[in-house]
Amino acid sequence: MTIPIICEIYLTSLYSYYWFLCEVILLFQQYLVDPFTVIIHFLAELFNDSYGLAIILVTLLIRLALMPLMLKQYKTQMAMKEKMDILKPEMEAIQQRLKTEEDPKKKQELQMEMMGLYKKHGINPLNMGCLPILIQMPILTGLYFAIRNSHEIATHQFLWFSLGQPDIIITILAGIIYYFQFKVSQANIPEQQREQMKFMGLLSPLMIVIFSFNAPAALPLYWVVGGLFLTIQTMISQKLFKSKQTNMSTNEK
In sequence order, which residues have a C-beta less than 8 Å from that of residue 92 and are 6 or more positions away? Predict the structure, then answer.
């Protein structure tokens, strides 16, 4: 194969990738950014051009739309926690043997035994409900660009801060609220997964703070409202599913 042909193939591939990327950006703009822009402007007009209230309402609408998925996630986590509590003595015994065992073959057998216990009781350690997080990512990105590209939002004041400029107070508040929300949500999660997720519990609020330092204050406002909503939703869900499981256990007895 000659060099000109290789170059032609490479340029054709690059051109195709470029047009595919352009199509994705246009679709993203058309189906996420533009609708959010229209909704925010519409709600702001209803509240005497208060874009802060409009962003709060959009946040609540997004959270209400995601609520069925979040409730399903809480239910899955509570059920898994209950099963893990039953398995805890057996799991601890296997883990203790793993610590003292030096033979690689025996270690592998113990790990297989652990996986067998998971399978027997219908437990999937990876099934911690990633779907709501994955769905939120494009939604949040769409809202971010709707806020970022709006001249009206950039020039409006809400409470003590300008929506279009970074604000350290609302930024730190967003980080604190999301850390608190993480701590509240830990009650649903089995102890083994809880230990594994400690790092993420610190990383997520930290990333929110770092990202918000250079972002319009409208974005951490979204996180503050969303974090408060999630915290209240988590606390109510914990009580709701816990009482249901207690009633089911009582009926079984």
Answer: none
User: How is residue 164 written in tokens?
Assistant: 């279009």
Q: How many Å separate Cα 55 from the centre of its chain?
A: 19
Phi, psi of 189 (to 5 degrees): -100, 135
Query: Can you name the residues that pair with 162 across neighbouring β-strands?
Result: 157
- Whether 102 and 149 have beta carbons less than 8 Å apart is answered as no
Is there a domain that residue 121 lies in? Answer: yes
* Residue with the two structure tokens 């999301």: 178
Question: In degrees, to the nearest 5, what angle opens at C-alpha 190 toward C-alphas 184 and 192?
Answer: 115
Residue with tokens 């893990």: 84
168 located within any domain: yes
Q: Is the whole model's pTM more than 0.85, yes or no?
A: no
161 domain residue, yes or no: yes
Structure-token pair, residue 53: 């209230």
Strands 157-158 and 161-162: antiparallel
- What size, in residues, is the chain? 253
- Compute the average pLDDT of residues 175-202: 72
Query: Can you tell me the distance from the alpha carbon of 114 to that of 80, in angstroms, rounded to the nearest whole number?
Result: 15
Distance CA 51, CA 153 (A): 6
Structural domain includes residue 58: yes
Report, as an integer, the average pLDDT of 10-23: 58
Residues in CB range of 83: below 8 A, 6 or more apart: 121, 122, 123
Q: Which two tokens stand for residue 241?
A: 């599913």
First to last CA, the chain: 76
- The tokens for 174 are 């967003």
* Positive or negative torsion for Cα 224, 227, 233, 238: negative
